[in-house]
Amino acid sequence: MSVRDEREPLAPRTTSLYDYALFRHGIEPEGRVPRRGYPLPEGSPPEPGRPRMPWKQAQAEVSSALTPLLADTDPVRAAEAVHRRADALGMPSRALCAAAARLPLADEDAARRTARQLTRTGTTPAAVGVGLGLLTRLGEPEDVPCLKVLGLLSSFGPAADALDPLDRQAAAQLVIRGRDRSEQLTPLVGAIATGDAEAVRAALVAVPDEPRALLSARRIAEAADLHGLLRARPVDPELLALTGRLLHRMSRDVGRRAEILDYLSATNVYAYFVGYADRLPPTPELHELLLSIALDLHSGPAALLDWRPHRREALLGGLERLLAGPAWALGPDAPSGGEDPAPAAERRRADWIRRTGRKPFAGTAARDSHPRWEVAVVHDAADSNSVETRILVDGLPLLPALFGKGPGLPPEHLVDRGEFRAGPEPREVLLAEAECTEGCCGALYVTIRRDGPEVVWDGWRGAVGPQPPPYRFDAAAYDAEVERAERDHSWCWPARRTARLIAAGLRERPELLSRWDLSANWIATDWDDPHTSVLWLVFTPPDGALGPEGTPLRLYFEWRLPDDGTPPEELTAAALDRIGRSDPKGFARLRRGSSELAASLGYSWSDGSGQDA
Asked: At 157, is the pLDDT very low, low, confident or very high (cuts 50, 70, 90)?
């Protein structure tokens, strides 16, 4: 990077942050950059600790203070004025950057010139933050070198946002360096800095297949130029396997918009991966990965990419033919009982493959004048307890297109409870909730109603972007799909089936719990041990006793049923029989609730009462 051209500095006349970053980079041995970037110059004032305010209020304050100044066509004079006002606002640089990116601008060319002056000669994070925010909207290729330099400083992570539309690879390098808290990507960052493609390839395939290392799979692929590596080495088995892991990680819709939708090279990388997948060794681990990729292409966010006509279907067909070949056939079922953990994990993988093997390749009905809808229940092999309900309209997934803040609710909430059934009265249904809860980032609702020979989905609430249109489905075809989904248990493993059967049994016979003043709070499989069914039961005293804050006193009991090889139907019958014969408070474990209520009933948190059956 070259030293910048001479420009008139901003008052006070101190070294600009841009020049300081260039200097630090120049004196470091081999130009090494700390994981979180270079610290600000010694003596720099700390970032303001101003109390947080609502975003709209902050945006209004920044707009009122800075918009008139940005209309000045003299960039030096405008930058000096913005510099003073930005510092006086007392806001963190990130907040100023975000607000500046949304400012109304009467003269974009004048604002661009001022932004360049701020980023190259600004002496405080506030002033440079405003410049970065403006260049996020107005930046041009000539701004890339300056943005890369500012990205070397610890305070200017937003430089990656400004770089994104101009140089995706440079932006990704800033992001993965800043997010590499475990330092598992340090070798990759170092290899990318050398520009040696072979070193990058070696470091990339060595990245651990762990959530911490693959926290931002898209940024890893962009920073390492995965697409370019595949073009040069399309038959490299290690690179292909790593590509599959990155694609599947990008396709997961866990609490945020799936990364795959923002990966510009996605369709080409999928084509390389599937086109050369026959070069992969036919191991159970890779069988699981290939099948996961097929599910992503069939019903996950990857189906929403800008595919050429019939291209996605062709890739699915290629995966189907490959996995149907003799080399990928599964061996016989392993015997049960007495095995060490490794064979048990292998059996579970084989069981998932057998249960899932046909789902992404099943044919669909021909399209008629009505939109076609389908329900796909997907159990993600990468997350042994993650099950989501996917809704497809005309073969494309609906929820990531309309919401994208979290996957569809599990089938226990949508399918088992008959939420999709269309009755004579309109009914609002919760389809998906943000991973961080509805109160934080929202949820997606739809109203389902029957209108003569059609079922209508409308009255959407919580959709991201424009209001979705009403969807009208042929009622007969709709009802047939609801019935099929409610009968389909092929995705379900034994412990999950046990939990579902117990929940259904308690819904059908509510008196089993009500006689003990209990209700079902949550019935599913344990999050950390998906092969154990768990019942959380709530005791509410019949006298309606209230606590000090006026809330009802309650006790929460947990009953765990490990999968011991007994068929789910038999486990369910035995569990329901036991609940009918004896009070679960006597054999389930007291987990939480009112200490006062527990003491009055003779329960103790430490006396061993309520041990697992």
From this structure: confident
What is the distance between the alpha carbons of residues 407 and 430, in angstroms, rounded to a whole number? 12
Which of 261, 201, 196, 208 lies closest to 227, judged by CA?
A: 201
Longest dimension (CA), the chain: 87
pLDDT in tens, 219-252: 999 999 999 999 999 999 999 999 999 999 999 8
Contact by Cβ (8 Å): 4, 140: no
Fill in the amino acid letter for 213. A
| Amino acid 333: pLDDT | 54
Torsion of CA 274, 280, 283, 286, to 10 degrees: -40
Q: Give Cα separations from 233 to 111, 192, 248 (angstroms).
A: 44, 17, 20
> Which residues are CB-contacts of 514 (< 8 A; sequence separation ≥ 6)?
none
Residue type, 436: C
HEC letters along 171-221: HHHHHHHHHCCCCCCHHHHHHHHHCCHHHHHHHHHCCCCCCCCCCCHHHHH
The dihedral through the CA atoms of 123, 129, 130, 132 has a sign that is positive
pLDDT of residue 255: 64
Sequence letter at residue 95: A
Distances (CA, A) of 319 to 217, 297, 328, 377: 22, 10, 11, 20
User: How many residues in total does the chain contain?
Assistant: 613
**Mean pLDDT value across residues 30-43:** 80
Rounded Cα distance, 550 and 597, in Å: 14
What is the spatial distance between Cα 82 and Cα 130, in angstroms, rounded to a whole number? 8
The residue ranking higher by pLDDT, 558 or 544, is 558
Alpha-carbon distance 441 to 434, whole Å?
6
Please give the pLDDT value at position 568.
95
Query: Coil, strand, or helix at residue 592?
Result: strand
pLDDT for residue 181 = 76
User: Could you say which DSSP state residue 452 is in?
Assistant: T
Q: Coil, helix or strand for 36?
A: coil
What burial class does residue 549 get, using C-beta atoms within 10 Å of its C-beta: 0-12 exposed, 13-18 middle, 19+ buried?
Answer: exposed
Q: Does the pLDDT value for residue 5 go beyond 60?
A: no
Q: Distance (Å, rounded) from C-alpha 589 to C-alpha 344?
A: 28
- Dist. CA 37–CA 25, nearest whole Å: 10
A 10 A CB-CB count for 64 gives 10
pLDDT digits 0-9 by tens, 165-184: 999 999 999 998 888 777 88
Q: Which residue has the higher pLDDT, 36 or 514?
A: 514
Q: Round to whole Å and give the CA distance between 524 and 509.
A: 18
pTM given for the model: 0.85
CA distance 323 to 314: 14
- pLDDT class for 74, splitting at 50, 70, 90? very high
User: What single string gives the DSSP state of each residue in 234-298?
Assistant: TT-HHHHHHHHHHHHHHH--SSS--GGGG-TTHHHHHHHHHHTGGGS---HHHHHHHHHHHHHHH
Q: How far apart are CA 95 and CA 351, in angstroms?
A: 49
The single-letter DSSP state of residue 29 is G
- The three-point CA angle 9-11-14 to 5° equals 70
Which range (243-252, 382-391, 508-517) has the least confidence?
Answer: 382-391
